[in-house]
Amino acid sequence: MASVTISEVRKTYGAVAVIHGVDIDIRHGEFVVLVGPSGCGKSTLLRMIAGLENISAGTIAIDDRVVNHLEPKDRDIAMVFQNYALYPQMTVAQNMSFALELARVDKATIRQKVDAAAAILGLEPLLDRKPAQLSGGQRQRVAMGRAIVRNPKVFLFDEPLSNLDAKLRVAMRAEIKSLHQRLGTTVVYVTHDQIEAMTMADRIVVLNAGRVEQIGTPLELYDRPVNRFVAGFIGSPAMNFIAGTLEAGQAGLKVASGAVIAVGPYPAELVGRQVEFGIRPEHILVSDAEGLDARVDVVEPTGSETHVVVDAAGEKLVALIRRRLPIAVGDRLSIAFEEGQGHLFDAGNGQRLALEPMDV
Amino acid sequence: MTSANLAAVQADAGRPPRDWVLIGLWLSLIVVAAIWIAPFVFIVFTSLKSTGQVMTTSAFAPPADPQFSNYASAWARGRFDTTFVNSVVITAIKVPLGLMISAMAAYALAKIPMRFGRLTLVLILFGTMIPFQVMLAPIFTLVNGFGLIDTYPGVILPYLAFGIPYQVFILHGFFRAIPHELSEAARIDGASHFTTFRRVFLPVSLPVLAALFILDFVATWNEFAMALVLLQDREMWTLPLGLSAFQGQFSRDYGQLNAAIVMTVLPATLVYLIFQRYFVSGLTSGAVKG
């Protein structure tokens, strides 16, 4: 277990800057997920922690020891790669023992550690197989086994589940999470999949274009995104955004079509301001009472819930409905936004305008 | 449709349609194989015939009375006990050493970030572009200057100089194609560059190393021009040189000449048969997503 402190870290390739001063404080035993769209710098940041990339500026410290100039092997970390990176000519057991062998650990200890890791991951029957003889999930487990035997201070995962099919991904997700709970080792985990981030993380770091957008627990990010980017990135289906101008007298939001939509109360000083109103799909209710008139464009039943794309006042909105309602394309519905669940963002810089979910 | 017709149609349906392209390919393969095998059959048959038989029978007629003594005579007259040993010594040192140096150079150029790595690669590749015939006279002067004419190093060093560039070229391309995560995983595991090279990259590149080994073995074993220039003492001659002298001296004894040729190509054939089993595809499958 160890803490990882990333202070003002920058990365440039020639004149191109890809990380612009990142600060993250990762606590002992914490499971931190770095999430963001492709090219946001999350993998680069992880590789800098691992020592596979040079740090252009700033410091990275593991347990208060600055590791900027340490070789990867001296940082006491272990890494699991997206494409497993198993040594093809070695058996599972040899793959797992390679690092210990290089560290000149005695054979009995190596055997004991490999057996222990194999037991944790259910790899005992596979120890004599070569990677080519394993399925994707098994290879992923071997890659984790290789990390576990080293008993590192920090585990680094670089999109480890991206190559697995959907079902296996869910199973491995739970496995990694329970492994973390059992071992208690600090984990830094990179993914572009926000569901993976939400389900696994103690805290999530949302990165965009080489900058930290927000750091917080999954539900903090979900309930109180600090800007439009985080609001749109976290959550599936994504949050709905309606751009418009706030009207005087709490009338609501005047949208492009000229209609005024009721969005609940807002501070008087925001009147006349260009904003984006955000509402999550599950907070759009199909109401029997007087609401906003909407036409159903698409119906996507998933079984447990139904995603309904509606057109309301010229705006496309996605509603998530858990009840079984007889809805068909072309139907007209009356929808309402759940009280206190809306978010307001500045239309210019995307920053959150109301800190708390709006009261109604 | 009668029931017999129906049965025929059903039987046809179960058979894959005739692939004329495949048949054409097979036919051309057989023709090419025959063209390649014909001289070998000719040589082996002739090597077992007496001079009289060579003159009176067809080239492809099997020997009626095999003259195995041709081999013993050719061995003695062609001074194979000397030339064979020379060829073995030169090839046994040059081929593995050249491959080793090439593989290490290719790994360094492909996987270790270096300031002038690309320039170095281009300079090495430049070596493949110079025809060695052009270099024969300068090489002779150079080797003579070092006093290495008629010595093993005198011929092995120039062989290395001409063999390494194209091996580096091929291995560099191969190493670059190996996912960088593999070397990064080794680096995190605490492997030095040399350990990564030896324990991870060499085993993965066995097929290409085997291919290069065969090519280089055959090329070195059969090399004539440079050996002719650099080895003037008959005691230092290699097999191809011995063979050429053989031809002039016994030009009428085709049986012995061909027996000598068979003995010359046999080691190369054996090397091919031993190493061709390493030409297994998909050795890297399972390393990364696959």
Automatic annotation (TrEMBL), chain A:
It comes from Pleomorphomonas carboxyditropha. Its main location: membrane. It is a peripheral membrane protein. InterPro entries: AAA+_ATPase, ABC_transporter-like_ATP-bd, ABC_transporter-like_CS, ABC_transpr_MalK-like, ABC_transpr_MalK/UgpC-like, Mo/tungstate-bd_C_term_dom, NA-bd_OB-fold, P-loop_NTPase. This is Sugar ABC transporter ATP-binding protein. GO terms for molecular function: ABC-type transporter activity; ATP binding; ATP hydrolysis activity. Belongs to the ABC transporter superfamily. The lineage of its organism: Bacteria, Pseudomonadati, Pseudomonadota, Alphaproteobacteria, Hyphomicrobiales. GO terms for biological process: carbohydrate transport. PANTHER family: BLL2173 PROTEIN (PTHR43875:SF10), MALTODEXTRIN IMPORT ATP-BINDING PROTEIN MSMX (PTHR43875). It is found in: Cell inner membrane. Keywords: ATP-binding, Nucleotide-binding, Transport. GO terms for cellular component: ATP-binding cassette (ABC) transporter complex, substrate-binding subunit-containing.
Automatic annotation (TrEMBL), chain B:
InterPro entries: MetI-like, MetI-like_sf. PROSITE patterns: ABC_TM1. Gene3D superfamilies: MetI-like (1.10.3720.10). It is found in: Cell membrane. Keywords: Cell membrane, Membrane, Transmembrane, Transmembrane helix, Transport. It comes from the Bacteria. Pfam families: BPD_transp_1. The chain crosses the membrane at residues 20-45, 84-109, 121-143, 155-179, 200-221, 257-275. GO terms for biological process: transmembrane transport. Residues 84-275 form the ABC transmembrane type-1 domain. Its main location: membrane. The keyword NADP does not apply. It is a multi-pass membrane protein. GO terms for cellular component: plasma membrane. Belongs to the binding-protein-dependent transport system permease family. This is ABC transporter permease. It comes from Pleomorphomonas carboxyditropha. The lineage of its organism: Bacteria, Pseudomonadati, Pseudomonadota, Alphaproteobacteria, Hyphomicrobiales.
